[in-house]
Specification:
The protein is of the alpha+beta class. 26% of the residues lie in helices and 23% in strands. The strands form 3 sheets. A 7-stranded antiparallel β-sheet has the order 10-16-15-14-13-12-11. Helix 5 packs across helix 9 and helix 5 runs antiparallel to helix 10. It is globular and about 70 Å long. The structure holds FE2/S2 (inorganic) cluster and fe (ii) ion. Fe (ii) ion binds next to helix 9. The site of FE2/S2 (inorganic) cluster has 9 residues, from loops.
């Protein structure tokens, strides 16, 4: 396979060498994992902010967190503070969470029924559309109107915002391709799932002492299921998962997901789901920070947010289908489905933090990927490396790097035949 010719700029000095880049760009069986510095060094995260997080579509929230006019949510994009606000016109907008005067953070906690943003420092106020309204005493006591600039020139800086279903994304650079393009292939693949039937039920956060990439890499493969998650593996077996590498996402899928076996019992399914999807579970991952879990009866959104190079905040949002989201009869099954992932994630945090400790060892280098189980992990690392090097990191399709026939699907078909 030809190795893309990319010359590295000085920003990558000491973080990733041309040798490292060539090594990750080899086929999965021959490739070498990314160097430790990319997981531990502040300069690496700074470069990721500029070349990955700010240029892509970053999932910052879900609409269920800001359902009503005046609902406001502070968030961060790889450390850059932002606000997501639903205006009186019900439109969602995003702004840099920073006052135009002295740069004070405007909003520190979620708010409801807010009419204006009021800066806690010197009292400047802004409408929920970002317009600068008041600059109290700016020219002296009771002299409020600024003389040297027009308030209409000092709106909050707005950030490009788009939604996919209930998920809210921002693009800080303002020049990413439309969000819909990133989801076009998945929209076709998931055309039988009526996302309008989903209702948000719960959200929760986890703090992880590890680099953000390790949290994603762990989600990308099922190789660890028998060892890290013996309970989950008993019902969602490693050998029944398949890897999937597409232009816009990487992930896992299984055709043998059984809610009852997984411990949460029957829940209402997506309406009119075809027979071949009744046992399907899919777990696609989108750059830079979004992982999804789709089942016949529930959906989750899992995001990561770097808090420095060695800490990550994870967020789960759970959705259930129709009355399955609210009916008391289904409360126990809902709680168990959520608990399954909370317990699984605690097990994952143990290995993710353990891998991060390993990234401080000079003894960890030139590591290899399983050519069967880790085509996704490889594709993700490759995408990161090539984006940092100034390329696109778009995966080259090869037989190894595309979806394998899911063993679960074969088993399901065999069962259907009797
Ligand atoms: S920093 Fe906001 S009003 Fe001064
Ligand atoms: Fe896991």
């Amino acid at each position: 396979m030809a190795i893309p010719r990319i010359s590295l700029d000085g920003a990558l000095s000491g973080i990733m060498s041309a040798h490292d880049l060539a090594a990750i760009n080899r086929p999965t069986a021959e490739a070498r994992c990314l160097p430790n510095a990319l997981y531990t060094r502040p300069e690496a995260l700074e470069l990721e902010r500029q070349r990955i997080f700010f240029t892509g579509w970053h999932c910052v929230a879900v609409g269920a967190q800001v359902p009503e006019p005046g609902d406001v949510l502070p968030a961060t994009v790889a450390g850059a503070p932002v606000i997501v606000a639903r205006g009186r016109d019900r439109k969602l907008r995003a702004f840099h969470n920073v006052c135009r005067h002295r740069g004070m953070q405007l909003v520190a906690a979620p708010k409801n029924r807010l009419r204006v943003f009021v800066c806690p420092y010197h009292g400047w106020s802004y409408g929920l559309d970002g317009q600068l309204r008041e600059t109290p005493h700016f020219e002296g006591h009771n002299l409020h109107e600024p003389c040297a600039f027009k308030k209409s020139d000092m709106w909050l800086r707005e950030i490009r915002l788009e939604c996919w279903n209930d998920l809210v994304f921002v693009n800080l650079s303002g020049d990413a391709p439309p969000l819909g393009r990133q989801f076009a292939a998945l929209d076709v693949r998931w055309k039988n799932y009526d996302f309008g039937a989903l209702r948000h039920v719960a959200s929760m956060n986890f703090e992880v002492k590890a680099n953000w990439k390790l949290a994603i890499e762990n989600f990308l493969e099922s190789y660890h299921l028998p060892f890290t998650h013996p309970r989950l593996n008993a019902n969602s077996r490693m050998e029944l998962h398949a890897c999937k590498v597409e232009r816009d996402y990487f992930g896992q899928l299984s055709d043998d997901y059984r809610g009852a076996d997984a411990g949460h019992g029957a829940l209402p399914r997506f309406p009119r789901l075809p027979e071949n999807l009744l046992l399907r579970a899919e777990y696609p991952t989108f750059m830079p920070n979004l992982m999804l879990g789709l089942h016949p009866d529930y959906f989750f959104v899992f995001t990561v947010e770097p808090d420095g190079p060695e800490r990550t905040r994870e967020t789960f949002h759970f959705y259930f289908v129709g009355e399955g989201a609210t009916a008391p009869d289904h409360a126990e099954a809902r709680d168990k489905a959520i608990a399954l992932w909370v317990d699984t994630n605690r097990e994952d945090i143990f290995v993710v933090e353990g891998m991060h400790k390993g990234r401080h060892s000079p003894g960890y280098r030139d590591a290899r990927f399983s050519p069967h189980h880790e085509t996704t992990t490889h594709a993700f690392q490759r995408r990161v490396a090539n984006l940092l090097a100034g390329g696109t990191g778009t995966p080259v399709k090869s037989p190894r790097a595309t979806e394998r026939a899911s063993p679960g699907a074969a088993r399901t078909r065999a069962r259907a035949k009797g």
